[in-house]
Amino acid sequence: MREIILATMGEMTLKGLNRKAFESTLLKTLRRRADGLGNWQVRTAQSAIYIEPMDETARQHTRQVFERCAKVFGVAALSRAAVCEKDYAEISATAADYLKEELLAAKTFKVKARRADKSFPLNSLELAAELGGDLLEKYTHLKVDVHNPDFTVVAEVRENAAYLHGARQKGAGGLPVPSSGRAALMLSGGIDSPVAAWLMAKRGLGLVAVHFASPPYTSPRAAAKVRTLAEILTEWCGPIPYYYIPYTAAQEYLRDTLPKQDYFTVMMRRSMLRITRLIAEREQCEAVVTGESLAQVASQTLSALACTDAVQDLPVLRPCIGMDKVEITDIARKIGTFETSIQPYEDCCTIFTPPHPKTKPKMIDVERFEAVMPELNTLEAEAAEKAEFELIMPCK
Ligand code: ATP
Ligand code: MG
Q1: Mutation to probe ligand 1, out of 185, 186, 188, 329 (largest number of atoms < 8 A from CB)
Q2: 82 Cα: distance to centroid of ligand 1 (angstroms)
């Protein structure tokens, strides 16, 4: 029996003239995600995506490819489906055979039929009724329940063939990466920034990760943890260019020369954003993404955010801004970053922090202090210059 993965596109189908570009980005991503797991053919017709194994290796990896495709943004829903001729007897026999396990496990069921090919002799209602009748005869323990069935059989008669499957699984949704452009992601080892990354990638944004570390105050294990987070994100976002910024010299200079210690956090945030802007320039990014959430800590009050935003011209996207920790944590669990994020390693943002950081910093003071730190810009440029680069590829 021939089996394929049948997926739908969702929101992308509303994109009018740009639809072709979205589709081609999505198909390219799906093909890349199936790489190394046999020979797969990926094509689209009538707003469905057909992902088909073309050799034995591919067939043996169907489950894995299905799981990978479920994490591709732009895929609204997907299911594994049996393919057969557009012939009623075949459709009936294939449904009974292919869905045997699910039908045996269910007490109640219903059949949903869709006829895209209007030349097929039975209309949707007739097909559903006929097929339901046949399955009741073969599986005598079953009862029909159209409102709340244990299992739904879906029969679709499409242009080239008929497809049989159970309920569709929800896909990752959103838009394919990088159909919305590229942004520099400020990635820490915490819970919030990987979630922010995922939320923006879902809107089709390609991400370039920028991580600041201050060895020896921050350890190699802390850096390894952040790299692991980036690796988990690649399963959703595709390959991630990753910049490790050695931030020690600039951060020590800030600590040693800043006239008022309660301004340390906001001054450091400005400094980090300036460096991120340099990387954004190099990588042709059109925005910056952070995991900030309003009022979560002193550096995330409106006054502090205003002071940070003012250092550069790109939009700063903060998808977690209106979320509380519970909501952010729920997403972190769902996307697989939570367990790594809670490993207890230090972050450069939490070293040298003053006991009472200023919650309402003023631009006038910030500028006054920067005026007496003449070497800061040079140290920032050096940090960007010495950044270590790696292209992180999806490994699962
Ligand atoms: P999380 O670290 O999960 O984002 P948090 O509550 O620890 O949450 P902060 O430490 O205040 O947040 O940092 C706010 C944001 O600044 C982070 O979401 C991230 O975007 C950025 N950030 C913090 N530390 C770093 C770092 N070491 N490198 C790059 N970006 C960072
Ligand atoms: Mg953090």
Answers
A1: 188
A2: 46
Q: In 325-388, which ranges are continuous DSSP H helix?
A: 325-335, 338-341, 363-371, 376-385
User: Residue 376: CB within 6 Å of ligand 1?
Assistant: no
Cα separation, 170 vs 43, whole angstroms: 20
At residue 377, what are phi and psi to the nearest 5 degrees? -60, -40
What does pTM read for this prediction?
Answer: 0.94
Measured from the CA of 341, which atom of ligand 1 is nearest?
3
Ligand 1, from 185, 191, 192: best to mutate by most atoms within 8 Å of Cβ? 192
Helix (H, G, I), strand (E, B) or coil at 314: coil
Query: What is the distance in A from the centroid of ligand 2 to the CA of 145?
Result: 50
Nearest to 82 by CA among 69, 72, 92: 92
pLDDT 10s per residue in the chain (396 long)? 999 999 999 777 667 768 888 999 999 999 999 999 999 999 998 889 999 999 999 999 999 999 999 999 999 999 999 999 999 999 999 999 999 999 999 999 999 999 999 999 999 999 999 999 999 999 999 999 999 999 999 999 999 999 999 999 999 999 999 999 999 999 999 999 999 999 999 999 999 999 999 999 999 999 999 999 999 999 999 999 999 999 999 999 999 999 999 999 999 999 999 999 999 999 999 999 999 999 887 779 999 999 999 999 999 999 999 999 999 999 999 999 999 999 998 888 888 989 899 999 999 999 999 999 999 999 999 999 999 999 999 976
Nearest ligand (C-alpha, residue 251): 1
